[in-house]
Amino acid sequence: MRTVIIHGQGHKGSTYHIAHGLAEKIGGEITEFFLPRDFGEFCLGCTKCFGTDASACPHYGKLRPLTEAIDAADVIILESPVYVYHATGAMKAFLDHYGWRWMVHRPEPSMFRKQGVCVATAAGAGMKSTMRDMADSLFFWGVARQYHLGAAVRAVSWETVSDRTKARLEKKTSALADKIRRRNGKVRPGLMTRAFFCLMRMLQKKGGLGNGLDPRHWEKQGWLGKARPWK
């Protein structure tokens, strides 16, 4: 199995340790990127990825290693500590660059056979809204199975997290890793994802949003006919 982790921060705090520990329990090859060190550009809103091609993005070259790792992975882990009840700005800036990959445009076929995990920690609260920031992208990318792992660690560093909390997180990550391994290669999108895909299929059959690229992508994949990315 291949797992890619996109870390929403550059330091190795509680969120890092939980996400990395989960990946190690899943086993196999692990590829990690740290934002903003490995990618720190803000989307310019030029819309070239929508109207021309993703390679026309001014940041395409810098983003390409992360995109290739995501496409090659069986499991995608997005992790972020809670910053004012949301994901870090670096994570948001990263995800902004993939609007063209949402199902309304040109989704990557392999996404519909992948598993994704959103991990968030805080000293207190805000994990739910932070994970939602990342989960939205996983859903609209078409990721087949999604898991959320939020933890109130009641500490500002991993070293000061209580042994009791760490033991509880060990159990959670072990159980989740087992579930992910069992489902590897067998996952199918849920009803909501398939329903949204069909809705977008109807949109593309009517010409999409007018740029021409999107309907051609769907036609090339065979999705305007009987083919589906999860079959």
What does this protein look like?
The protein is α/β, with parallel strands linked by helices. The protein has helices at residues 14-26, 48-51, 60-72, 89-96, 127-141, 163-183, 191-205, 213-221, and strands at 2-7, 29-34, 75-81, 115-122, 145-152. Helices cover 42% and strands 15% of the residues. Strands 2-1-3-4-5 form a five-stranded parallel sheet, with helices on both faces. β1 (2-7), α1 and β2 (29-34) form a beta-alpha-beta unit. α1 (14-26) packs parallel to α6 (163-183).
SSE topology:
Blueprint: E1 2-7, H1 14-26, E2 29-34, H2 48-51, H3 60-72, E3 75-81, H4 89-96, E4 115-122, H5 127-141, E5 145-152, H6 163-183, H7 191-205, H8 213-221
Parallel strand pairs: 1-2, 1-3, 3-4, 4-5
Helix pairs in contact: 1-6
Descriptors for this entry?
231 residues; alpha/beta; five-stranded parallel sheet; 15% strand; globular
Strand content: 15-25%
Order the strands across the largest sheet as they lie in space: 2-1-3-4-5
Radius of gyration: 18 Å
Sheet with the most strands?
Answer: 5 strands, parallel
Number of helices: 8
Give the % helix. 40-55%
- Sheet/helix structural class: alpha/beta
Assembly context of the chains: single chain
Q: How do you describe this structure in short?
A:
The chain is an alpha/beta fold and 231 residues long. It is built from eight helices and five strands; from the N terminus they run E-H-E-H-H-E-H-E-H-E-H-H-H.
